[in-house]
Amino acid sequence: MSSLLQNRESLRVPEPTLRRLPWYLSNVKLLKQKGERFVSSTQISKEINIDASQIAKDLSYVNISGRTRVGYEVDTLIAVLEDFLGFTNLHKAFLFGVGSLGGALLHDSGLRHFGLEIVAAFDVNPSLVGTKLNGIPIFHTDDFRQKMQEYDVNIGVLTVPIEIAQQITDYMVEGGIKAVWNFTPFRIRVPESIVVQNTSLYAHLAVMFNRLNFNEIK
Ligand SMILES: NC(=O)c1ccc[n+]([C@@H]2O[C@H](COP(=O)([O-])OP(=O)(O)OC[C@H]3O[C@@H](n4cnc5c(N)ncnc54)[C@H](O)[C@@H]3O)[C@@H](O)[C@H]2O)c1
Question: Contact 153/92 with Cβ under 8 angstroms?
Fold first, then answer.
């Protein structure tokens, strides 16, 4: 590996850290609501049951330094975390497939709080094309390339039937989409420069069922 690449790799924040940081953020926000002005990693640790040293290590990736004994200033920590996680500037996205899941995502106002704004959606169903859902316009999939010229978008949300997941992904990438949030169970293939995030609501169900059974046996 070249030293430039090695350098880049060392700047890369580990995925587990990126998954934990939003938890810290939510918790620090709660502590703020309770009137706290300063928060230490030990305090966060008690709330969410993660080792304080792990929290301090995760926060070392973020540009903030705590003060000995008092900890981090709550308002600053919230602002820095939101900025670091990309929640402060809205990332615009297109959504493909306005079915039961796609429609629910168009209705979810929570996405905006996490920095994602779905500005338009695409479908082929004539009863959907030309309508709006929660104020978001639905266009025909064939109009995607033209809409790429009109909107400043580089993220695609994929909620189409599994059979066409790859086809629509290719179509999105050819049209200029740089990151795909894939909700389909299909392991889509993309060029190396394209970011893919696979998400499943069902992924943790088996774990929950297993733990539930385990507790019932005890
Ligand atoms: N990740 C998760 O947790 C999760 C949860 C539910 C569903 N899913 C997956 O999400 C996908 C959608 O599920 P659903 O239940 O909403 O299905 P659905 O059948 O309700 O919706 C699919 C939509 O895609 C549209 N579509 C078909 N061809 C299209 C095209 N060429 N371009 C754009 N849109 C097109 C259909 O008209 C329909 O509106 C499936 O792949 C499903 O497996 C994932």
Answer: yes
What is the b/e burial string over 1-21, where b = at least 16 CB atoms within 10 angstroms of the residue's CB?
eeeeeeeeeeeeeeeeeeebb
Is 102 annotated as ligand-binding? Answer: yes
* Interface TM-score (ipTM) > 0.95: yes
Atom of ligand 1 nearest to the CA of 201: 3
Answer yes or no: is pLDDT of 110 > 90. no
Looking from the CA of residue 102, the nearest atom of ligand 1 is: 16
Residue range 16-62, pLDDT digits in tens: 999 999 999 999 999 999 999 999 989 899 888 899 999 999 999 98
Quick one: what percent of the chain has pLDDT higher than 70? 94
Average model confidence (pLDDT) across the chain: 91
Annotation-wise, does 98 bind a ligand?
yes
Domain 91-198 matching CATH 3.40.50.720: the answer reads yes
From the options 1.50.10.10, 1.10.10.10, 3.40.50.1240, 1.20.1250.20, give the CATH code of 3-84: 1.10.10.10
Q: Where in the chain is the domain with CATH 1.10.10.10?
A: 3-84
Residue of 141, 158, 160, 168 to mutate, ligand 1, most atoms within 8 A of C-beta: 160
Q: Report whether 17 contacts 61 (CB < 8 A).
A: yes
174 C-alpha to ligand 1 centroid (Å): 21
Determine the distance separating the centroid of ligand 1 and the alpha carbon of 97, expressed in angstroms. Answer: 5
**Ranges for all domains in the chain classified under CATH 3.40.50.720:** 91-198
Pocket test for ligand 1, best of 141, 144, 162, 183 (most atoms within 8 A of CB): 183
